[in-house]
Specification:
Blueprint: E1 9-12, E2 20-23, H1 25-28, H2 31-43, E3 52-56, H3 59-71, E4 75-80, E5 88-95, E6 98-105, E7 114-122, H4 126-137, E8 141-151, H5 156-159, E9 165-171
Parallel strand pairs: 3-4, 3-7, 7-8, 8-9
Antiparallel strand pairs: 1-2, 4-6, 5-6
Length: about 170
Amino acid sequence: MKKIEEYVRSIPDFPEKGIIFRDITSVLQDADGLKLAIDSMIKLLDGVDFDVVVGTESRGFIFGVPIAYALGKPFVPVRKKGKLPCETISEKYDLEYGSAEIEMHKDSILPGQKAVLVDDLIATGGTIEACTKLIERLGGEVVKIIFLMELAGLKGRDKLAKYDVSSVITYEGK
């Protein structure tokens, strides 16, 4: 059986020279790779007591929904500003070149609920840090954050230092 790293396609010099882009579409397009990715992420949750899975648009949905389904938990989407139909709360965060804003429904996390955050990749950590703020503003508790891949050279864990963070794959570079 192949290791998950073998399903990830590495593309040199994208989006710019010197960067190695870690492409998950090759994982998603292979049934065995997708199953291995989901199963590996689920293993990161062994022994974790939680009530709800929270995922970011859009790749956090790809991994978060099957994890929630497999573990019998509800799924809460975090979306880009203006995409959710009911009353929301929002959080702005910085990107490498600019800023962005995400939202979640005000009634999506109840006070005291324990949340697991799921995304495909941790790079600088800005998006997930913003998600933690939303969950906590609604009275929830972030008990674990999981990723399929981590780009350790971008130091995203530094922004998430007070949380329990795990990744299936860690790449030392950027």
